[in-house]
Amino acid sequence: MLSSTVQIQTTDPSRLIRRLCKHWSHKFEVDFDDQHGRIALGDTQCSLTAGENSLTATLQTADEEQLTREGVVADHLQRMSADETFKFAWQR
């Protein structure tokens, strides 16, 4: 299994989890609460974990090409934020 992880600094990680999971719930299978989120992006799993003033997103897949979804997840997280700007440094 291949994975890519990013941690971003945010004032309200729980809000981002809720907003992103609700946003994608019409298209993908999602499961979430205030501390964790899981989104099934086809063959790629996206896990979200709230920390203290941070959010960790992890993509897991068997297909290396699917790790390119990093950009899609980053773009949507940025859109879900009302007024914060994030730096995304994915670690594979």
From TrEMBL:
Gene3D superfamilies: Alpha-D-phosphohexomutase, C-terminal domain. InterPro entries: UCP028291. Pfam families: DUF2218 (PF09981). This is DUF2218 domain-containing protein.
